[in-house]
Amino acid sequence: MLSEFQNNNTDLAFSAKTTAFIPSFYEAYKLALTPSDPNRYNMLLGSRLIPDTVVRYRPDDQAKLFLQMKHISTKATSLLISHIVYGQDWADNTSMETQKLIAADITSRIQILDTLSNNALFDSYLNEADPNEPNWKQRYFGSQAMYDRLKSIKQVVDPQGLFICKHWVGSDDWTSDLNCPILSISIKLSLTWSFILMEFFILKTSV
């Protein structure tokens, strides 16, 4: 059955999976990791976890979306029953402008899958999610309430907010480049008055 499907869809890329016994981690490392270059790939991914109700009861709608995504790019699109991953790669000498276009394209293509959701919010598998996901709190963590709960826990174990990365718990307290914390109005006013008083005492001392 699989062979027939492959023969009828020659424009799709298929890969075979194998299972092997490896006597030690070092042997596995030599076999799987040594031949590859850790700096070899430039790639962005996006994904959606599709409920089984869509897979079971709306196969035609799902197939139409696969075709729509396939005609755009087939470089790295795969279907794992109810987990859909889409991605694009680029060469090291690709311009920054083109890289931005690729990133925007991935985000827009992943949004196509949301037409299956009937106004629900599909989640994303975090390790293969779009890092530029607009609704990342809900997509990555399930709901705003769940995100808020995780953030409250983080504030206990990391009160200074030192451990951050893009679109992760607590990153909404920082600027988009993660260089500066976003200060509340009360903190800004407090700092402003502190600087005014400091300047006043410096001027008074120097007179």
Gross morphology: extended
Order of helices and strands: HHEHHEEHHHH
For the sheet with most strands, the description reads: 3 strands, antiparallel
Question: Numbering strands along the chain, what is their spatial order in the largest sheet?
Answer: 1-3-2
Helix content: 40-55%
The low-confidence parts are 71-81
Whole-angstrom Rg: 24 Å
Mean pLDDT: 75
Q: How many angstroms separate the termini?
A: 91 Å
Q: Strand share of the residues?
A: 5-15%
Q: How many helical stretches?
A: 8
Count of DSSP strands: 3
- Computed structural class: mainly alpha
Domain Berberine/berberine-like: 124-163
GO molecular function: flavin adenine dinucleotide binding; oxidoreductase activity
Protein name: Berberine/berberine-like domain-containing protein
Pfam families: BBE
Provide a compact summary of the structure.
The protein has 8 helices and 3 strands. With 207 residues, it is mainly α.
Can you tell me about this structure?
By secondary structure, this protein is mainly α. It has eight helices and three strands; from the N terminus they run H-H-E-H-H-E-E-H-H-H-H. It has a three-stranded antiparallel beta sheet, covered by helices on one side. Strand 2 and strand 3 form a beta hairpin. The chain is extended, with a radius of gyration of 24 Å. About 5% of the residues have low confidence. Pfam families: BBE. GO terms for molecular function: flavin adenine dinucleotide binding; oxidoreductase activity.
Provide tags for this entry:
single chain; 207 residues; mainly alpha; three-stranded antiparallel sheet; 8 helices; 3 strands; extended
